[in-house]
């Protein structure tokens, strides 16, 4: 089984920065892709950024130039560096992952528990 654990959320003033982490643990053979999503109450969960095994990243238009997603393969961890934060970035941030869990190529897909990010003065 695989677990995803997010950390790094909190309260920050507009214009500030936060760095989120998402660590994958368990029966991991390799990781195909990991992503960051966010969700406000009453709204749909939206993709913020994603990184695939080849290393390429995609970002939502609303965060391009402000957020940077990176990964540490040795730690099975991805990060989301969030700069120039705005009140509209307030949400619960979740990470997801597609993980290869065996040499036969079988995969696991799941979500972390989420971490709250609040941008407010």
3D architecture notes:
The structure is a single chain. With 121 residues, this protein is mainly beta. It contains no helices and 11 strands. The protein has strands at residues 2-7, 10-12, 18-26, 30-39, 46-52, 57-59, 67-72, 77-82, 91-100, 107-111, 115-119. The strands form 2 sheets. Strands 2, 4, 5, 6, 9, 10 and 11 form a 7-stranded mixed beta sheet that branches. Strands 1-3-8-7 form a 4-stranded antiparallel beta sheet, with no helix packed on it. A hairpin with a 4-residue loop joins strand 5 and strand 6 (57-59). The chain is elongated. The chain starts with a strand and ends with a strand. The model has no long low-confidence stretch (mean pLDDT 95).
How would you summarize this macromolecular structure in one to three sentences?
The protein is mainly beta and 121 residues long. Helices cover 0% and strands 58% of the residues.
Based on the model shown, name its key terms.
121 residues; mainly beta; seven-stranded mixed β-sheet; 11 strands
SSE ordering: EEEEEEEEEEE
Strand content: over 45%
Percent helix, as a range, is under 10%
Contiguous uncertain segments of 5+ residues: none
Discrete helix count: 0
Distance between termini? 41 Å
Secondary structure category: mainly beta
Global shape: elongated
Largest sheet: 7 strands, mixed
Query: What's the overall average pLDDT, rounded?
Result: 95
How many strand elements? 11
Radius of gyration of CA atoms, rounded to a whole number? 14 Å
């Amino acid at each position: 089984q695989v677990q995803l654990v997010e950390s790094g959320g909190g309260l920050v003033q507009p214009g500030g920065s936060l760095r989120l982490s998402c660590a994958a643990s368990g029966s991991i053979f390799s990781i195909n892709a990991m992503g960051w999503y966010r969700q406000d109450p009453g709204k749909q969960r939206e993709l913020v950024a994603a990184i695939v095994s080849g290393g390429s990243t995609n970002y939502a238009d609303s965060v391009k130039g402000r957020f940077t997603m990176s990964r540490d393969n040795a730690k099975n961890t991805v990060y989301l560096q969030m700069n120039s934060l705005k009140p509209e970035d307030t949400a619960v941030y979740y990470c997801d992952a597609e993980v290869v869990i065996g040499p036969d190529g079988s995969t696991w897909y799941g979500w972390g528990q989420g971490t709250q990010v609040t941008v407010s003065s």
